[in-house]
Amino acid sequence: MPALLLQHPFMSASALAECNGQAMVAAMLAFELALADVQEARGALPEGASGQMRRLLEAHAFDLEAIAAGIASGGNAAIPFVKQARAALPAELKRYFHQGATSQDVVDSALMLLLRPRLAALDALLQRCRAAALPLMRAHGETVMVGRTLMQQALPITFGVKVAHWAIGLEQARRRLAGVELPVQFGGAVGVHSGLEEPGGDNRGLDFMDAIAQRLGLAVPVLPWHTDRQPIHALGTALDAAAGAAEKLALDVALLTQTEVGEVAEPSAPGMGESSSMPHKRNPVRCALIRGAARQVHGHTTVLLNAAAQPLERGLGEWHAEWAPLIDSALLLEGALEQAAVLLEGLEVNPEAMKRNLAVTGGGIMAEPVAKLLAPTLGPDAAKRISAEAAETARLQGVPYAEALAAHAEVQGNLTDDALARVTDPSLYLGSSRAQVARAADWLMAI
């Protein structure tokens, strides 16, 4: 697969540099050395054994290609990795390496270690989005624009409330991700720490598991979770929720950048959004990258959801199917949020275009409040008919809606010029838009 051209552009370049095969090997080694440290501290390894392992293995050049080739026969990266590590140790230490562990302990714990810095990076990006959205929504708390339903003009809102909804979605996703735990995995062959009994008969597996988690900075699970994939389910769906929030932002911005709408534009940059053949175009490329990444995350999440129920004490393909979608989801989301942060920080807003689009119907967008005002005098059915007829007249004849209303025979004598002016003013029919901006700002700042 030509990943450099087809996959990597949707991902974070810095994350890709940090989350590679060498990083996976380092994470697997970190788990094994933490296991050895804990076991030595509790008398299960000879004194000095873990330190000697650390010195030898941290200096050892693992052969990534050989590990990759070994996955075809072993089924996962831990098996060839453990073989290489043991081969690098002297005979007296070989039997103590990987003691009481199984390959799933190594792979699951290593994935959690790989994802920990990615979650920190995602949190920082989401905070950056929040920081950019707050001043944008406040600056446009009074900027009136068309609210659209089913892609059609509906009623007026403010641009500030639209930004507030973007910001709330992203911040909800951030708080959800912040609550996701990355637990250590340590259960041994069938998840019950077989062979780790003390001379007196007590099994030390749970104690080892808790101590490994503390040493690695991972969460302590209640029990080993070999086929209890709730941690993966929680993480995968939290990543997907953040992708959905970013995609919502990108979709709205892309729709508002359409030539005929022109209410916002992506931040300009040399060559950004250019067409291969049409020099006049300024394509919403950042929005496309965000949506492309998000769509891939949604697909990966489906794989994770379908792997949630795993058989007996070890998954047969379900566990294996999780690895790439989980890591790819984090890398794709990080790439999407990098674009989202730049988008919010430099979004170009065109209030004049918003004002122009409010007038596209000649003011007919205000037919609902007009009908409400006429209903007590003329009845609801007549009021709705008259407001619609005036809106159609305004659209066809290109006259202001207030003028079409004033000329309507059934309106004459029922509304004053002042009442007509007020009822057809979009800035006076904004519902709770202003209050929503204020409330959203308070919530966003309550960190």
Notes on the structure:
62% of the residues lie in helices and 4% in strands. The strands form two sheets. It has a two-stranded antiparallel ribbon with strand order 1-2. Strands 3-4 form a two-stranded antiparallel ribbon. The chain is built from 19 helices and four strands. Helix 8 packs antiparallel against helix 9 (159-178) and helix 9 (159-178) runs parallel beside helix 19 (433-445). The model has no long low-confidence stretch (mean pLDDT 93). It has helices spanning 3-6, 13-18, 21-41, 49-58, 64-74, 78-87, 91-94, 103-139, 159-178, 205-216, 230-256, 285-306, 318-346, 351-358, 367-378, 380-397, 401-407, 417-423, 433-445; strands at 144-149, 152-158, 264-265, 348-349. It is mainly α and 447 residues long. Among the domains are: 118-188 and 227-355, Fumarase C, Chain A, domain 2 (Up-down Bundle), CATH 1.20.200.10; 364-423, no CATH class.
Query: Could you name the CATH homologous superfamily of the domain at 118-188 and 227-355?
Result: Fumarase/aspartase (Central domain)
Helix content: 55-70%
Which stretches are poorly predicted, pLDDT < 50 over at least 5 residues?
none
**CATH architecture descriptor text of the domain at 118-188 and 227-355:** Up-down Bundle
> How many β-strands, per DSSP?
4
Structure class: mainly alpha
Radius of gyration: 30 Å
Q: Describe the sheet with the most strands.
A: 2 strands, antiparallel
Number of helices: 19
Order of secondary-structure elements: HHHHHHHHEEHHHEHHEHHHHHH
CATH topology of the domain at 118-188 and 227-355: Fumarase C, Chain A, domain 2
> Which term fits the overall shape?
elongated
Distance between the termini: 42 Å
InterPro entries: AdenyloSucc_lyase_C (IPR019468), Fumarase/histidase_N (IPR024083), Fumarate_lyase_fam (IPR000362), Fumarate_lyase_N (IPR022761), L-Aspartase-like (IPR008948)
Protein name: Adenylosuccinate lyase family protein
Domain Adenylosuccinate lyase C-terminal: 362-441
GO molecular function: lyase activity
